[in-house]
Specification:
Blueprint: H1 2-5, E1 10-12, E2 15-16, H2 21-32, E3 40-42, H3 45-72
Antiparallel strand pairs: 1-2, 1-3
């Protein structure tokens, strides 16, 4: 949706262009997992902010998931 309102929001291989849906999904997953990316670059401030937001969301999801799992299951071998 960001690319619709800001056509030059991302660059692929150093060239600003409109990305197709496959490239945008790839970029979103690499940002959410913070695996890193080098081929697609956020160019505008709006796209950079969205990328930061996706990275923080991905990290917080994993942290909350692990905290929830460790809180649900009791530690084995300890007496209450």
């Amino acid at each position: 949706m960001l690319q619709y309102f800001y056509p030059g929001a991302y660059a692929l291989g150093g060239t600003v262009k409109a990305l197709d849906l496959r490239e945008l999904i790839y970029f979103s997953f690499t940002a959410l997992t913070t695996a890193g990316f080098g081929d697609i670059t956020p160019v505008l401030v709006q796209s950079r902010f969205l990328t930061i937001f996706e990275m923080v969301t991905g990290v917080m999801y994993v942290a909350i998931l692990i905290a929830r799992l460790t809180g649900v299951y009791p530690v084995v071998g300890t007496k209450p």
